[in-house]
Design brief:
about 270 residues, about 5% strand, rod-shaped
């Protein structure tokens, strides 16, 4: 039995243009022509089309499909296994992207409930980097402390934010003074400021034991986006992030009743 190109298009779910393209590419040429010169497809042609569509669904390029169909016994299994590995990797990547999107939505939903003008009035130069906040959600997603911090942040009023940002500004000015005065990062003044920062986090966001504070400090030193939440770029100094990290680690060791670790050992 023979089928016209229109009939094949209808029940195979492909366009006539696609069938013409397969013909020109030598991938699927109809077995016959009508007296008027129209393409006519046989049952064998339809079986070949079904194979083509199967490989196209797996996103094989047409050239590779042609090679497989020329010698299916020699090529198909190995190529299918390779494609299976590629698809598994792609599925994993897409799952990660979906998770990132989900966390970004959570960040937006649990973010600071202020208008853009209020944000400017309250935060000034302190910026809210969505990419960093999203990565933080992924990194700390299993942390009760992070979930509590996000929930408490969402519950803060404008007046709360004005107060806590005012406290942060005073603390930041003291940090810059200590740094500019050349005080050592593991000195008493620097460690006292580190302890004040830890208590500030506990007061406004979540309990912050020394080990958690160490991890936060490591983020400050490793990621400029994290440090910009504490000191805006216009007020930063070379080495300031590492200095604060050292002070926090030293204070954590002091709180644990041990001597601070030498810098070269960390």
């Amino acid at each position: 039995m023979s089928y016209s190109v229109g009939q094949v298009s209808a029940f195979a779910g492909v366009t006539v243009r696609t069938l013409h393209h397969y013909d020109r590419a030598g991938l699927l040429s109809p077995s016959d022509r009508s007296r008027a010169g129209y393409r006519l497809y046989s049952d064998a042609d339809l079986a070949r089309l079904q194979q083509i569509l199967f490989y196209r669904e797996l996103r094989f390029p047409l050239e590779e499909i042609a090679e497989i169909l020329q010698d299916p016994q020699a090529n198909a299994l190995e190529r299918l296994r390779a494609r299976q590995r590629q698809l598994a990797e792609e599925i994993s990547r897409l799952q990660q992207l979906a998770e990132v999107a989900e966390r970004a939505i959570e960040v937006q939903q649990t973010g600071v409930p202020l208008t853009p003008r209020e944000r400017f009035d309250v935060f000034g130069e302190i910026g809210f980097d969505l990419s960093y906040a999203t990565e933080a959600q992924l990194k700390w997603r299993d942390s009760d402390g992070h979930r509590e911090a996000m929930a408490r942040a969402a519950a803060h009023t404008k007046e709360d934010w004005q107060q806590l940002m005012g406290e942060a500004a005073v603390w930041r000015a003291e940090l810059l003074t200590v740094f500019d005065d050349g005080e050592p990062g593991d000195g008493d003044r620097a460690m006292d400021l580190a302890e004040e920062h830890r208590r500030y986090l506990a007061r406004w966001f979540t309990p912050c034991p020394p080990d958690m504070h160490r991890r936060i400090a490591d983020d400050f030193a490793a990621d400029p986006r994290a440090f910009a939440l504490v000191v805006p770029p216009s007020q930063q100094r070379p080495g300031l992030a590492a200095y604060l990290c050292k002070a926090i680690h030293a204070n954590a060791s002091r709180s644990a009743g041990s001597r601070p670790e030498p810098e070269e050992d960390r």
